[in-house]
From TrEMBL:
Domain (VOC): residue spans on this chain: 3-111
Keywords: Dioxygenase, Oxidoreductase
Sequence intervals crossing the membrane: none
Keyword Translocase: no
Pfam families from the UniProt entry: Glyoxalase (PF00903)
Entry-linked InterPro entries: Glyas_Bleomycin-R_OHBP_Dase, Glyas_Fos-R_dOase_dom, VOC_core
GO MF annotation: an example: dioxygenase activity
SUPFAM superfamilies: Glyoxalase/Bleomycin resistance protein/Dihydroxybiphenyl dioxygenase (SSF54593)
Protein name according to UniProt: Extradiol dioxygenase
């Protein structure tokens, strides 16, 4: 049966983004060969939202958005989206060295991975 999920981030600078996940986010990893790092992620959830066309988005979760932003900013992380409060959470996004964006949010709802 399905026992996990594998997330892929396509990037124009995989080495820089791998270094970011390793050195800035401090996520442990395994080397799948030739420096191809596969990182562990915190517990995950999946949500399905209505849209005109299909797409995927990665948002990392935290317990305190303001503190997490301060910690990451001190490590040189660039936030590219103003903080926005929604009924379900408080969110922003930051830039990866390869140019992509990753969302960051503090959920205001019960977390499914706590079930």
């Amino acid at each position: 049966m399905i026992n996990g999920a594998h997330v892929i981030i396509y990037t124009t600078d995989a080495d820089a983004d791998r270094a970011f996940f390793r050195d800035v986010l401090e996520y442990p990893s395994v080397d799948a060969g030739h420096g191809w790092l596969i990182f562990t992620l915190p517990p995950a959830e999946v949500a399905l939202h209505p849209a005109e066309a299909g797409s995927h988005e990665l948002l990392l979760m935290c317990d305190n958005l303001e503190q997490t932003m301060a910690d990451l900013s001190a490590r040189g992380v660039e936030f590219v989206r103003p903080v926005e409060r929604q009924p379900w959470g408080v969110l922003t996004s930051f830039r990866l060295p390869g140019g992509g964006e990753v969302g960051l949010y503090e959920p205001l709802h019960e977390r499914a991975h706590d079930l």
